[in-house]
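Reopening this ticket.

The earlier resolution said the output was attached, but the attachment link was broken on my side. Pasting everything inline this time so it's all in one place.
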Amino acid sequence: MDSGLAVAQFVSAFAKATCVPSPDVAVVQFGDSSELADELVGLVLAGIKRATTSLNRDFAQQDTPLPKLGDLQVVLDGEQTPRCIIRIVQVEIKAMRAVDGRFAWEEGGGDRSLAWWRSAHTRYFKRQAAREGFTVDDTAEVVLERFEVVWPPEFADVLVHAT
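Inline output:
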């Protein structure tokens, strides 16, 4: 099935079940490979991952608005299949070196420590920097998003209904 069609059907099922008419939903995939996307969406579905990190520069480079409180996002796996819908509950912009242990824990990777988070994100962002021709260090501004899963119901942290 075409990924766009699968996303449209997924969002339609969410809208029908939650009575949220025509939700505005962005489409995201965590990671920079299909394997990493599968691993990270697996952590989301297991209830472990409830945060994610992006470079602030990417939003301007891609002419994409920063996420904001209440935004909905369809999360794709490595095969571009929609697996869940998340709602953003907090957005912060900080230097990488200012990220704290609580955020690292909520992001859910590795042993969930701040040391692991810093090491993994430094490697990840340096891979991106090498591909795209920029430099990155611990002063780089990152966008820290906390989220809750709202769809499908078997993975949802909260139930969503139109108000």
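Reporter confirms the inline version is readable. The CA atoms of residues 30 and 40 lie 6 Å apart. The helical segments are 3-18, 34-45, 56-61, 101-107, 114-132.
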